[in-house]
Amino acid sequence: KPGRRAEPDGPQPVPGIARIIAVASGKGGVGKSTVAANLACALAAEGRRVGLLDADVYGPSQPRMLGVSGRPASPDGKTILPMRNHGVTMMSIGLMTNEDQAVVWRGPMLMGALQQMLTQVQWGALDVLIVDLPPGTGDVQLTLCQKAKIDGAVIVSTPQDVALLDARKGVDMFRQLNTPILGMIENMSTHICSQCGHEEHVFGHGGVVAEAAKMGVPLLAEIPLDLQIRLAADGGAPIVVTQPDGPQAQGFRHVARQL
Ligand code: ADP
């Protein structure tokens, strides 16, 4: 009903942030962080005020992917100043720990850290906050969806069965949490040899299309397995920044325009 307030204990909007979009995956290593970084930069390039919250506690890769380092400042001792690069305001659990230090936190500590990154970081006014979630269906996902009103989830998967099986669980989790699923992205969909142009489906092809159709979820894009995408991501400036008009950037830009 119009004007109805959110339940006091239910998911709340975060003040100043118009939309929160979660980027999730069933498995690690499927390119979830690469997608999150490229979507954030593509949105920024379109003039949207965008934030990226790296909540992948077990493998925070956004500092590297966005070329950000150093410890965030807290001038007042209460709030934290986010970092900024490529037009994206960002905060990562990886900036609070040493890069090669493993995060061995229990559930409540993880939830505290997530809460802190959502509410104590000075995000400023944002049109979109992209949240890079850890893989799987654990405490962080649950806490995020229960505390903050998530406007949509994007699920990244590679086409092979092992990854799809877990992606399906991700879809199921968001459905149980009443989080709208915007769609799936098939990453490492196809590989085109940079030497000879031969196209190969390293992880099979069409797996995500079929799975998305089966679950009634839109397929947002198919992203190729491409050396340039990896070099850009690992080099601190995503492909949508380094080669915005190249073919590898188009899938990301296409999805960003729909967010
Ligand atoms: P996740 O967040 O799912 O664990 P990452 O985004 O960290 O996965 O990606 C894992 C590795 O694969 C990174 O080195 C990244 O650069 C690389 N990668 C991701 N997507 C692609 C792609 N489409 N083409 C080439 N390399 C990719």
UniProtKB/TrEMBL annotation:
Keyword Nucleotide-binding carried by entry: yes
Subunit note: Homodimer.
The family this protein is said to belong to: In the C-terminal section; belongs to the Mrp/NBP35 ATP-binding proteins family. In the N-terminal section; belongs to the MIP18 family.
Organism listed in the record: Meridianimarinicoccus marinus
Domain of life: Bacteria
Binding site for ATP: G26, K27, G28, G29, V30, G31, K32, S33
Function: Binds and transfers iron-sulfur (Fe-S) clusters to target apoproteins. Can hydrolyze ATP.
Protein name per Swiss-Prot or TrEMBL: Iron-sulfur cluster carrier protein
UniProt-recorded Gene Ontology molecular function terms: ATP binding
Lineage of the species this protein comes from: Bacteria, Pseudomonadati, Pseudomonadota, Alphaproteobacteria, Rhodobacterales
Keyword field: ATP-binding, Hydrolase, Iron, Iron-sulfur, Metal-binding, Nucleotide-binding
